[in-house]
Sequence to fold (144 residues):
Amino acid sequence: MLMDSVEIMKILPHRYPFLLVDGVLEKKEGEYIKAFKNVTINEPFFQGHFPAYPIMPGVLILEGLAQTAGLLFLKADKDDVVPLFIGVEKARFKREVKPGNVLIYEVNYTMERHGMIFVKAKASVEGKVCTVADLILGIKEGGE
Fold:
């Protein structure tokens, strides 16, 4: 593992229960990142989504992908930057994510335009694609 949750929290401002990345498996600086989330029944969202049939909300899978993208572009020594999730396009949810799954996030850089970063993102479980989307990200400096 390239990065654990302690190292991730040095880069991302997110904290539990909203930190949705547990570790980084692979990374090619500025190009590609592969990370994971261990999905457990203790997740607070399972109390209401849905108690009798727990599945991870799709918007949280997208957020986990966006956080993973933030890990691709942010540095640990920059504590005055805030990653911004600006937009999502072409999102598709193909499979359910359930407690006990290890969710694998993969993010590939495609381009930067007008200060916005565009990536292709995919989430999978056991090699089967659960979610795909094109994400748009920004990085705000100064934190204000």
The helical segments are 5-11, 58-73. The mean pLDDT is 94. The domain at 5-141 is CATH 3.10.129.10 (Thiol Ester Dehydrase; Chain A).
